[in-house]
Amino acid sequence: MALLLIDDDKDFTQFFSVAIEETGIKCQVLTQPIAILQYDLADIEHIIIDLSMPDFDGLQILRFLKEINYKGYISVTSGQAGTLLESAKEICKLHKLNFHTLLRKPFDIDFLEKFIPFKAKETLSSPYPPEELRSDATLIIQLKKAIKQHKIDVYFQPKFNLKTRQPVGFEALARWSLDNTFVSPEKFIMLAENNHLMSDLTALIIDQSLKYFSLIDEKKNGLGLAINFSSTELRQNGLPDLLLKKAQQYRISTNMITLEITETVLLEKNTMSLEVLTRLRLMGFKLSIDDFGSGYSSVNMLQNGPFTELKVDRMFIDSIQNKPQSKIIVKAIFDMATQLGLNVIAEGIETIDEAEALIQMQYSYGQGFFYSKPMPANAVNEWLRSWK
Ligand code: C2E
Ligand code: MG
Ligand code: MG
Description:
single chain, TIM Barrel, eight-stranded mixed beta barrel, five-stranded parallel β-sheet, 15 strands, elongated, binds ligand C2E
């Protein structure tokens, strides 16, 4: 197994290959980038690519590696200032390449540590198994059965006041366990949407969420409940009445309930959804734009949608410590949303440093693994008691 460095700078390749080989890793070098098209990559476990090269640049190489479905690690290097390297990392992710490290030139000798041992530094911490071996067709049948038998559960993840570290409410997250592993909600919700199962699934999630929420001892202290909805669910004209009926059944005031809505871009083009949103708001429900800034949410909705809250996408919080751009964006979103009278909440807080940076930026509310992971809805009362 070997590492391949693609860089037209001969001095650099010389320095790099000597340094790497001293650690016992074999290093091959390509100074003619276009030669990659004919190169035998069978033994190459890791490719390091310089971004700016004449004739065939790093981005073209990334595209080529995507096309041949290259499975090894990829690191990207550049001497250029600014955000170019970060963009290349994003491109790796979009191509579903196995991204390893960014190397900004010049770098000190410590960089070698990044390559020993060969293991992915940035592995996605996903609670779900890698893309299923099961076919979608089997999954759809099983999903239909699970909905019918009410075998979709809800987990509650607490939201916090960042300063007091007290819980202010919960977000309900759908869980489907199949053969003792969870299927990701994004996956099964997409399957439900494409196979006419969504209205039954929505009804089940609403019922489960409100039922468990009504059993929380302390909800009279102002704890709220948030439920997720995709924009297709909002096209169902019957949704406001269903939610109102369920809220009344479980004796929960509508202003305790927030609907977190993703994909607001799709909403804009649909008057029915805007009508549904407005009716929900008239009934007293709160409305939150989820994953704000992710590309599926739109600033335009802030002008025209009757929203009360904005959730800053996890992607920005994730990079708040090491990307100055993210910090600027997170602060600007806060200022804009606050001036528009919206409640702002940060999602995906994983470290105390992220929490502190957010507090410094005036954020009051947040959610994330640092505070608490999602838990089975029936464990919430116990958790509330132990939290005190
Ligand atoms: P979301 O609404 O943005 O929910 C937050 C997701 O981030 C959840 O993933 C949660 O487990 C995860 N999360 C929370 N804190 C952290 C953290 O600190 N670090 C990291 N890495 N992740 C964190 P989950 O449960 O897998 O849900 C994914 C998405 O699926 C949700 O994103 C939501 O869009 C959708 N979803 C989940 N439940 C439902 C549902 O009942 N209905 C609909 N329509 N969509 C749902
Ligand atoms: Mg959400
Ligand atoms: Mg979100």
